[in-house]
């Protein structure tokens, strides 16, 4: 009798091992990263729609930049950035920062696209000041 009980116990134990379920992460719950495509073309009209401190886009030397989250951090103050929101900041940027590494590197971080009819290969924040 004991043998039979032992046998039943082993069988139940083995059957239990196979009942483990694998945990699957549903595909729709997977984290999705927002990727910004810096080759996205924007028209000057689209840039013009973002002309305030709370929503500030500018174009500089063919690139389009969203400076909204950075205006208050500009070492040269809010004013100069405010004045180029919604428009083309190439002249002012080149005059003040042409040839300076740090402002150009900072600018790259905020690029969201290119001005329509400008290919991404033509965008050059380091270009010479406009004459
Ligand atoms: C829109 C893009 C701009 C970016 C990314 C930018 C970035 C910077 C950075 C990184 C600095 C610090 C420089 C350093 O410590 O070496 C700076 C300083 C300054 N910026 Fe800008 N800037 C921009 C536009 C402008 C404009 C349009 C003006 C005025 C026309 C301006 C005027 C200044 C001034 C007066 C300073 C402080 C003095 C200096 O360090 O040269 N900035 N900017």
How would you characterize this protein structure?
With 131 residues, this protein is an alpha+beta fold. The chain has helices at 2-17, 44-48, 78-82, 90-97, 101-109, and strands at residues 41-42, 51-52, 55-60, 63-66, 111-115. A five-stranded mixed β-sheet has the order 1-5-4-3-2. The longest helix is centred in the N-terminal third of the chain and has 16 residues, at 2-17. The protein starts with a helix and ends in a 16-residue tail after the last strand. Residues 7-14 and 16-20 have low confidence and may be disordered. Bound molecules: protoporphyrin IX containing FE (HEM).
The residue ranges in which pLDDT falls below 50 over 5 or more consecutive positions are 7-14, 16-20
| Order of neighbouring strands in the sheet with most strands | 1-5-4-3-2
Let me know the largest β-sheet: 5 strands, mixed
Number of helices: 5
Strand content: 5-15%
What is the C-level CATH assignment of one domain? Alpha Beta
Order of secondary-structure elements: HEHEEEHHHE
Q: What is the helix content? A: 25-40%
Morphology: globular
Query: Could you report the average pLDDT, rounded to the nearest whole number?
Result: 82
CATH homologous superfamily of one domain, by name?
Cytochrome b5-like heme/steroid binding domain
Look up the CATH topology of one domain: Flavocytochrome B2, Chain A, domain 1
CATH architecture of one domain: Roll
What distance separates the N and C termini?
Answer: 103 Å
Structural class: alpha+beta
Rg from C-alpha positions?
A: 29 Å
Which ligands appear in the coordinates? protoporphyrin IX containing FE
Count every beta strand, where a strand is a DSSP E run of 2 or more residues. 5
